């Protein structure tokens, strides 16, 4: 992964992760909407721990991709990025259970 994140200011990092308090991140929306190209772009700038974070709605980006049936994004998150498949959402369900 690139180190582009180190060149961003703290404000830019915060906006990338959570644009406004209470809103899901840009990464979450790209996963939810099945935008593979944008997901790959964002992965290069997001720290690993943010790939697994619970968004304000109580789900992770993996939950969103699985729920939406976006198989390629699920594969990227699990096989290429090593996202946590066992992380429950606010309803106690894993991404597998949301699929």
Automatic annotation (TrEMBL):
Lineage, top-rank taxon, reads Eukaryota
Q: Which UniProt keywords apply?
A: ANK repeat, Repeat
Gene3D superfamilies membership:
Ankyrin repeat-containing domain (1.25.40.20)
Where is coiled-coil annotated?
A: none
InterPro entries under this entry? Ankyrin_rpt (IPR002110), Ankyrin_rpt-contain_sf (IPR036770)
Positions annotated as ANK repeat: 57-79
Repeat found in the keyword field: yes
What's this protein's name?
Uncharacterized protein
What's the source species for this entry?
A: Adineta ricciae
Query: What's the source species' lineage?
Result: Eukaryota, Metazoa, Spiralia, Gnathifera, Rotifera
